[in-house]
Design the sequence.
C-alpha cells in the first residue's frame, strides 16, 4: 500500500500547513503564492534544494578562540541558516537527522569534525540512498568519537556504536540479538580516525581511517548473514533490514505528520522506502503530497528550535544582531533543545515531552522578547493570523481584538495554535 | 494572605477542573491528606559502574578483570571486610559513620535489558515488561489525586514523572519559576486560553493552566528559605539546593527528582566516573548539612539509582560496556545504614555481568510503604520484597 495522493489544489490554509511543517514557517505572502498549486509539484520543488547557503553568515566556528566558543559558533551558524537560508526544508531535515544519527557536544568538541558531520547530514538531507547516508555518517570522526568506535579493536571490541547502530539508527529494538551487537562490533573493528584529538586541538581537522591491523578478520554472523564481514557489510545489512524501513518511516512521520502517527500510514511510507531501496527523497515527496499529510493539522508540538525559527520566518526573517542570535541558541537550550546536545544518544523524543512548567515559562518569555521587548526585531508588516496560527478562523482570533500589533503578535506566539504545526 | 497547602490545592484543583476539564483525579486533590515526609530520588544517567562505586576490594577476580581501571585497595574507603567505597565518595563518610548511608547490592530486575533507553524506561515505569507508559511517580499522582505531589528539578521531565494525561512539573530554577505576563494582557490571555479546543491544542491549554497554579504555589513559599550550607559549584549541587529550598519552605511535594548524567563510561572511565562520583558526593553532603540546619533532616530520605551497572571486565578503551546488576544507595536520618546484600559474586556471571539478586521494585516498595505511607502494591502492581533499608 502506498499513500493516497492529495488531489485538490492548495488552499491558503493547506499552503500554511505545508510551510509550517516543511519550512519552519513563512510569511503571509509566501503562503499565498502557493494557493491553487498542485500538492505533488510543490513537494517536488521544496525537495529540490541545492547546497546554496544564507549570504553573510556572521558566525565562523573556524575562528573560535576556545573550544566552548567553537561549539557556540557552530550552533549559531546553523541557526542562522535555519532563519535566513534559502532552503529551510534542507535545514529542517538536517535537524531531523541530527536527532536520528545523534552525536553530542558533551563528548565531541572538535570544530572541523562537527562541521563535517553537519555537512554530511545536509548532503544527505533528502538522500536517494539511506544506506549510503548511514555509511557516510558512520565514518565521520564525530560519530566514531561519540560512540567510541575509534576504540573498537580486534580482540578487544567496544560495542557502543554497534549497539546504537541497530537500536537507534536502523532496525530499532526487538529486531536483533545481543549476538548481533557483538558480531557487529567485531566487523566494525579497525574503523577509527586520525587527527583532531584532545581539547587543545579543537581546530585540527580529523579524517576517517581503516586500520587493518586492528580489524577482526574472522567469520561473523550478523542479522542472519555469515562470512568475513566488514564494517561496510554491517552498515549495508543494518540499513537494508526490513525493520529499518518501518523505523525510519516512523521517524519521518513523527517529524512531518503527527507526534503520534497512524501505523497504517507509516507502513505506506515504509513500503515506498523498501521499494525504492531507501530513497528518502521519494518517500518524502510522496508523504508531503499525501492525504495523510494534509489531513493531519495541529498534531506536532513544535520543539524549541522550531518555535524560534517559525517565529522569525513568519516575521519575514528580519535582521537581528549576532548577539541576539547567540542568545536565541542559548534560549533554545533552556527550553530543552541545545543544538547538537540532546541528553542522550537517543535524541529528543519531542511531542509532549517538549512541554513542562519550565519550558512553557521559557516560551512565554521568548515570545515577549520577540514581540514586545526593547530589542524585538522591527517589522514592516505585522505577521498575520494565517502566518502564525495556520488558519484565519483560529479559536484565538477573538481574544486579539482591541490589542496593538505587538500585543497581538505576543499573544499569538504563546497560543496553542502557534505552538503546534 | 498566603494560602496554606490545603487551601491551595482546593483552590487550584477546583479552578483547574472547572475551567479546563482536567482529569477528574485532580478535583479530588483537596480531599487527600498529605504527609510530612519527602523522598528525593537521584538518577545517575548513563549506567553507573557499581563495581567501581562499591568496590569488592578483597576479591582477586575484581582486580583480574580490571587491570587498568580497578580502584587500588589502598585507595578504597573501607566499609567492611569485603566492600568499600570509591575514594571520590569521601564526603559521604560522615554519613556512613553516623549510620545514615545505606548501600544495596546486586540490584536489578528479571530479563535485564542493556539498552540505556529500554532499561531506563523499566526503572521509570517499574515495569520490566515495558507495557506501561506511565511512570511510577506519575501513578502516585493519580492514586493520591495530587498534581503537585512530585516535581523534577531540571528542564525536561523524566518518564518516571509522567501520568496518563500530563507530566508532573519540572522546575529548572526556583527563582525563575513564575509567570510574568506583560501589563494589560491578563484579560486577553484568559480569553485566549478559554477558547474551545481539542487534541494537542487542548493539552497545551491544560498544561499552561497547571503551570500557572504550580508557579503560584511555589512563589508563595520559597521566599522564606536561606541556605544552611555552602553548596559546591555546578548544576547538580544547584539543583539539590533548589530541592532543599522547596522542602524547607514547605511547598509540599512528596517526591523530588534530581539527575546527574554522564555515567556511560565506555572509554577512559577513571577520569570520568571519578569526577562524577565526586560531584555526587559533595553535592549530597552539602544537601544533608543544609537539611539539618533547616531542621527538616528527620523527614527527608534520598534514594539513588542508575539504569544498569557495567560489564565486570574492562574493555580495551579503559572503560566498561553496558551491564546488568548494580548498586543503589540511600541516605538520611530515616535510613538504616549499612550494606544490604552480599558482595557481588564475580565467579557466577550472566554474559559477563553481575547477576541481580534483589529486585529494584522491592527497594521502591520500601520507599512507598515504609517512608511515604502509600500502598506500594497499588502503584507497583504487585508485592515486591526488598532489603529493609529504612530505620
Sequence:
Amino acid at each position: 500500500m502506498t499513500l493516497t495522493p492529495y488531489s485538490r489544489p492548495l488552499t491558503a490554509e493547506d499552503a500554511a500547513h505545508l510551510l509550517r511543517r516543511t519550512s519552519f514557517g513563512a510569511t503571509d505572502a509566501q503562503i499565498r503564492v502557493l494557493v491553487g498549486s498542485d500538492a505533488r509539484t510543490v513537494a517536488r520543488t521544496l525537495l529540490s534544494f541545492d547546497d546554496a547557503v544564507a549570504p553573510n553568515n556572521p558566525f565562523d566556528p573556524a575562528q573560535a578562540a576556545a573550544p566552548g566558543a567553537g561549539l557556540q559558533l557552530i550552533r549559531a551558524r546553523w541557526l542562522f541558516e535555519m532563519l535566513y537560508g534559502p532552503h529551510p526544508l534542507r535545514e529542517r531535515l538536517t535537524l531531523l537527522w541530527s536527532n536520528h544519527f545523534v552525536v553530542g557536544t558533551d563528548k565531541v568538541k572538535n570544530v572541523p569534525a562537527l562541521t563535517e558531520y553537519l555537512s554530511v547530514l545536509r548532503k544527505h538531507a533528502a538522500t536517494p540512498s539511506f544506506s549510503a547516508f548511514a555509511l557516510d555518517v558512520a565514518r565521520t570522526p564525530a560519530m566514531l568519537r561519540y560512540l567510541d568506535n575509534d576504540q573498537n579493536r580486534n580482540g578487544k571490541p567496544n560495542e557502543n556504536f554497534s549497539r546504537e547502530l541497530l537500536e537507534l539508527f536502523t532496525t530499532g529494538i526487538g529486531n536483533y540479538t545481543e549476538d548481533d551487537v557483538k558480531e557487529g562490533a567485531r566487523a566494525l573493528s579497525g574503523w577509527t580516525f586520525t587527527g583532531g584529538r584532545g581539547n587543545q586541538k579543537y581546530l585540527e581537522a580529523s579524517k576517517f581511517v581503516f586500520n587493518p591491523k586492528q580489524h577482526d578478520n574472522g567469520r561473523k554472523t550478523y542479522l542472519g548473514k555469515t562470512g568475513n564481514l566488514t564494517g561496510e557489510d554491517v552498515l549495508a545489512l543494518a540499513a537494508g533490514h526490513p525493520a529499518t524501513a518501518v523505523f525510519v518511516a516512523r521517524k519521518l512521520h513523527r517529524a512531518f505528520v503527527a507526534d503520534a502517527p497512524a501505523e497504517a500510514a507509516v507502513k505506506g511510507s515504509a513500503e515506498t522506502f523498501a521499494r525504492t531501496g531507501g530513497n528518502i527523497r521519494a518517500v518524502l515527496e510522496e508523504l508531503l503530497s499525501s492525504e495523510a499529510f494534509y489531513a493531519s493539522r495541529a498534531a506536532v508540538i513544535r520543539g524549541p528550535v522550531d518555535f524560534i525559527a517559525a517565529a522569525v520566518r513568519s516575521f519575514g526573517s528580519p535582521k537581528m544582531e549576532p548577539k541576539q542570535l547567540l542568545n536565541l541558541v542559548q534560549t533554545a537550550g533552556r527550553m530543552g533543545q541545545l543544538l547538537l546536545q540532546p541528553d542522550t544518544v537517543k535524541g529528543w523524543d519531542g511531542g509532549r515531552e517538549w512541554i513542562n512548567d519550565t519550558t512553557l515559562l521559557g516560551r512565554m518569555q521568548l515570545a515577549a522578547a520577540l514581540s514586545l521587548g526593547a530589542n524585538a526585531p522591527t517589522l514592516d508588516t505585522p505577521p498575520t493570523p494565517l502566518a502564525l496560527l495556520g488558519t484565519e478562523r483560529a479559536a484565538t482570533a477573538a481574544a486579539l481584538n482591541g490589542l496593538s500589533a505587538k500585543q497581538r503578535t505576543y499573544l499569538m506566539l504563546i497560543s496553542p495554535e502557534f505552538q503546534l504545526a | 494572605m498566603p494560602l496554606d497547602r490545603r487551601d491551595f490545592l482546593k483552590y487550584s484543583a477546583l479552578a483547574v477542573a472547572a475551567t479546563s476539564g482536567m482529569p477528574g483525579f485532580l478535583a479530588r486533590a483537596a480531599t487527600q491528606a498529605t504527609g510530612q515526609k519527602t523522598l528525593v530520588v537521584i538518577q545517575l544517567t548513563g549506567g553507573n559502574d557499581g563495581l567501581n562505586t562499591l568496590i569488592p576490594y578483597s576479591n582477586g577476580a575484581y582486580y583480574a578483570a580490571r587491570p587498568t581501571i580497578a580502584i587500588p585497595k589502598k585507595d578504597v574507603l573501607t566499609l567492611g571486610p569485603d566492600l568499600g567505597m570509591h575514594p571520590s565518595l569521601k564526603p559521604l563518610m560522615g554519613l556512613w559513620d553516623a549510620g545514615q548511608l545505606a548501600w544495596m547490592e546486586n540490584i536489578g530486575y528479571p530479563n535485564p535489558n542493556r539498552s540505556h533507553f529500554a532499561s531506563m524506561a523499566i526503572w521509570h515505569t517499574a515495569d520490566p515488561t515495558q507495557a506501561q507508559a506511565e511512570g511510577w511517580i506519575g501513578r502516585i499522582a493519580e492514586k493520591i489525586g495530587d498534581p503537585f505531589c512530585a516535581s523534577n528539578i531540571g528542564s525536561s521531565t523524566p518518564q518516571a514523572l509522567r501520568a496518563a494525561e500530563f507530566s508532573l512539573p519540572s522546575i529548572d530554577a526556583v527563582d525563575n519559576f513564575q509567570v510574568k505576563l506583560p501589563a494589560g494582557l491578563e484579560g486577553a490571555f484568559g480569553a485566549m486560553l478559554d477558547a474551545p479546543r481539542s487534541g494537542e491544542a487542548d493539552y497545551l491549554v491544560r498544561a499552561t493552566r497547571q503551570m500557572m497554579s504550580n508557579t503560584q504555589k511555589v512563589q508563595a513559599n520559597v521566599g522564606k528559605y536561606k541556605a544552611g550550607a555552602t553548596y559546591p559549584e555546578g548544576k547538580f549541587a544547584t539543583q539539590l539546593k533548589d530541592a532543599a529550598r522547596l522542602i524547607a519552605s514547605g511547598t509540599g511535594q512528596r517526591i523530588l527528582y534530581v539527575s546527574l548524567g554522564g555515567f556511560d563510561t565506555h572509554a577512559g572511565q577513571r577520569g570520568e566516573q571519578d569526577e562524577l562520583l565526586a560531584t555526587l558526593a559533595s553535592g549530597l553532603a552539602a544537601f544533608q548539612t543544609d537539611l539539618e540546619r533547616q531542621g527538616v533532616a528527620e523527614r527527608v530520605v534520598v534514594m539513588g539509582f542508575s539504569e544498569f551497572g557495567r560489564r565486570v571486565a574492562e574493555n580495551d578503551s579503559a572503560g566498561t560496556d553496558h551491564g546488568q546488576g548494580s548498586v543503589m544507595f540511600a541516605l538520611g536520618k530515616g535510613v538504616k545504614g549499612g550494606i544490604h546484600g552480599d558482595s557481588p559474586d564475580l565467579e557466577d556471571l550472566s554474559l559477563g555481568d553481575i547477576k541481580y539478586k534483589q529486585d529494584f521494585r522491592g527497594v521502591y516498595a520500601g520507599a512507598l510503604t515504609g517512608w511515604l505511607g502509600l500502598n506500594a502494591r497499588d502503584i507497583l502492581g504487585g508485592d515486591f520484597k526488598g532489603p529493609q533499608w529504612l530505620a
Q: What stands out?
A: Residues 38-180+224-380 of chain B form a domain with the Alkaline Phosphatase, subunit A fold (CATH 3.40.720). The two ends of chain B are 39 Å apart (CA to CA). Confidence is low (pLDDT under 50) at residues 1-34 of chain B. DSSP finds twelve helices and 14 strands in chain B.
